[in-house]
Specification:
Blueprint lengths: L4 E2 H8 L3 H10 L14 E2 L1 H15 L4 H12 L5 H35 L9 H10 L1
Antiparallel strand pairs: 1-2
Length: about 140
């Protein structure tokens, strides 16, 4: 059996802050850690593996609800991979929508910046455009 680690060591091993580890536990993504008599949380290899899984899913941009689903599917050896693939493809579509929105914002800001003289005059097409949104 592998040794149990305090949260600080678990944090070092996973690259996830103690605050986030506690947060994942509070959300139920990570099982409640056993505690020492003095109240310190202890984590085993399975818990560290789960934290790594959560971190990787977060790195890929999944939200907490999707991560909870992915964890359930990961733990269920009788899962259908089609369900996992659907979640992944839904996330790909959401990411593409965000990318499209960001590219549109970039084009607009680049156009406005190119129209701005950037000199000592007060006229500014960037501010003018922002002000139009308020009217």
């Amino acid at each position: 059996m592998s040794p149990l680690l305090h949260i600080g060591e678990a944090s070092k091993r996973t690259g996830v802050s103690p605050k986030m580890i506690r947060h994942y536990e509070g959300l139920g993504l990570l099982p409640e850690a056993p505690r020492t008599e003095s109240g310190y949380r202890l984590y085993d290899e399975a818990a560290l593996h789960t934290v790594h899984f959560i971190r990787r899913a977060r790195d890929l941009g999944f939200g907490m609800a999707d991560i909870a689903q992915l964890l359930d599917l990961w733990r269920n050896r009788r899962r259908a991979s089609a369900t996992v693939k659907r979640l992944a493809l839904d996330h790909v579509a959401a990411l593409q929508q965000r990318i499209d929105e960001l590219e549109a914002m970039k084009r607009t800001l680049a156009r406005l910046a190119s129209e701005c003289h950037g000199n000592e005059r007060s006229a500014c097409p960037i501010l003018d455009d922002l002000a139009q949104s308020c009217a």
